[in-house]
Amino acid sequence: MQLLSLTLTNFKSHRDRHVVFQPGTNAICGENGAGKTSILEAIAWTLFAYQGPYRKEDLIRNGEKSAQARVAFVSRQDGRTYEVERCTAKGYVIYDPQLGQKLPYRNLEAEVLPWLRQQLGVAGGTDLSQLFANTIGVPQGTFTADFLKATEDRKRVFDSILKVEEYKQANQKMLSLEKYAKSEVEALERDIARYEEALQDLGATQQRQQTVTQAIATAEATLTQLEADLATLQAEKEALAALANQVQQAELRLQTLTTQIAAQQQTNQVLETSVQKAEAALAQCEAHRASYAAYLQAEATLKQLNEQLKQRSPLVKQRDAQQKALAAGQAALTRLNLQLEALAQAQQQLQALQPGIAQQAELEAQQAAVAESLNQLQAMRVEERSLLSQQGKLQENLAELAQDLQRLQALAENLADVSSLEQQRDRLQTQLSRLEAARQFEGELQTLLTGAEQQRDRHRAQAAAALDTLRQMQAGMPLLATDAVDAVLQALQEGIDLNSELLSNIRAILTDLAAQTDAEAIRKQIQQTKKAIDAAYRQRAEVDNLPAQQAQQQRLQGELQQAQSRLQQLQQALQAETATKERRSHLIQALSDLGDPRGRSQLLQQDLAQQPTLQAQYERLKSSQADAAAAIAQLEAQLAQFAELETQIDTQTAIRQQHQAGYQLFLQAQATAEPLPSLQQQLQAAIAQVATLEAERAQVQAELDALQQRYDPQRWHQVEADYSAKRSQADQISGGLPPQRQLLAELDRKLAELGAIAAQRDQAQHDLKQRKQNHKFVVFARKTYKDAGPRITARYVQQVSQEGDRLFRELMNRPNLSLEWTAEYEILVREGGYTRRFINLSGGEQMCAALAVRLALLRVVADLDMAFFDEPTTNMDRPRRESLAEAIANLKSFRQLFVISHDDTFEKVTENVIQITREG
């Protein structure tokens, strides 16, 4: 599997980040707090569902609603490229770029995690979160710490990684399964015993079923014979019952007719009484008919008089309205007359106001002139304040400009020589480009120096021996020329001194070359020179602006002189402001004392303008008053014809009251007398009905006598008694059959239950054999898991040890070393014939050994070819950091390695450097 890229959106400190990964070692570098560790956390969260100690809201950038991470990778299963995106709000989305569509996987446990296991190439059921936490993602600062722990502590750490506890847990979990299998066997044995006990009554139940079946057959045959006899008796009984019913119906009809005749006779008596009452009421109506007519006549007359009263009411209302309008018009006439008299007086007042109006116009003209002068002075005051503000700003600008000019002039005098700096930069760049040749020359000189020093040492030893020999010869041979010996001694000493001087010169050259071959120092000098050049160019740009600044200074000085000249003019003109304000106050007082004659004149003219209108209103109102008086007179004439209306109403009311009693008696009698003709007709019909009913009763009596001669009551009672006896016997047998049938059904049901129990017993006996086999298998499987755990763990340890040994030699690049990871999870390193424990290794060796074992665990347990390291060089000195970085970079067995580093250690050993900068 190979990771291609990672895209983060609002994930922790990253707003919008896209990172591309390469095969080999990917060094993720940057300052502290830039979000380097978040890169690995996002990969773990997306591909391994590992969230660590964080809550979901901890993954979201401050101020945002959700976080997203998208990882593109090449699948280990099919070699195709996929993109997996995970969002804190929407969950997983898996995209196939080659097909250009999303895969239908959304559920984490059921769909996404199984698919990720396939693409990663790990075993099904593997807990990806634990795999990353314990194996793939090596936590910061724990490379060597776990291997330095005591034996028991090491076992707790690596037992979890090697899944040792899974075998123990499987054995422990199968204990409950063994108990369950045993309980199933015991339960079946109890069930079989219970079935045998329930089947003890099977024979007695079968015998009783046969007895009840025979009894039911006998009772059913007897019941069939009784049913036939009952049918014969039923037919005879029905014939006799029909004849008895006819006799009964005839007697009932006879009785009904007798009752109807008696009721009709009573009805005839009631009708006769009603006819008599109606005849008496008719006589009473004739006695009071005159009073009834007089009452009705008075009622009609009153209705006519009320109509006249309704006609008079509108006329009265019109007369009252006209009288009210006449009174209102008279008041209006009086008011208009007063207004016309006031207008006559206003004409005189208007003539008297003319001199004051002329004086007011003169004062207002003077006031307008004074106001105009004050407005001009106010504008000058505003201009004065503006000029004062402008003068202050100009003075401030001139002061600042003077400082800038002074600085620029000083800068012009001390302007750096840009050409010399550029030449120095070019020399340094040329020196940097020739760095390899200088290094080669340095190496050759170093070799030469080393050889020369060795030759010098040999020459010095030989010269010293020769000098000693010469001195001995000179002491043994006094005649030997002293000058010659001294010359030889001096020549030897000068040779030694010359050799030492030559070597010193070569060493000085090497010292100079050391400075010249220090690439980092040359780069720093180039950077400093570039900064000096940039500063010189900025200074030259500022100095070039000096003439423009001087021109601006002259312009500002001219503007300042103009502003000061204008200020003097304004201050002279503003001296007259106090006198002008006093003149305005005198004019305002004079106008106030005059009392506004123009305004009063205008009001009087407005009033006089209404005089024609008021005069016309006065004339129209006088005409309206005359019309109203005429209308009142006409209405009074119309009302005269209704003068006697109240007297007539009182007279007719008295007449109606006089005849009211006779009227009431007539109405009462009339209600009783009206149905007299109908009552007489009903009485005649009722008499005819009585005659008809008596004839029908005689006919029914004759039919009853004929039926009684055919009907024999004794035979009917005999048939009824025989039928009842046989019916009782049949009912007794029928009543006994249901309990017997129920008993038979109960016996059949019981036999069926016993048969089912027998079948259950047989099935339980068959199941018991199978459950015993299952229990035996579970016991065997538990023992197998118990015995297999240590063996498989030992196999894992052996494979990890072999793979770790190979990786350790690869990391150390020393084939004479070997590594062993023991059953107690302790690391032993052998070199030559000696064995060293992990605690006795150097820091670099410990780091490489721990790294080899962890990578071997990753390869053996998970069979993956990528790993993640978070700050593996923490708390290490520079040599150890560089050693570990080179060791990791030399690993060829892993397709991709991801290393987080806060320094440049890994930048030197890999070209795949990912720089992470802090986002705002």
UniProtKB/TrEMBL annotation:
GO molecular function: ATP hydrolysis activity
Record keyword Coiled coil present: yes
Biological processes, Gene Ontology terms: double-strand break repair
Keyword Coiled coil belongs to the record: yes
Alphabetical UniProt keywords: Coiled coil
Coiled-coil region list: 178-288, 333-438, 519-580, 618-648, 676-710
Domain Rad50/SbcC-type AAA: from-to ranges: 5-238
Domain (RecF/RecN/SMC N-terminal): residue spans on this chain: 521-918
Family: Belongs to the SMC family. SbcC subfamily.
Subunit structure: Heterodimer of SbcC and SbcD.
Official protein name in the record: Nuclease SbcCD subunit C
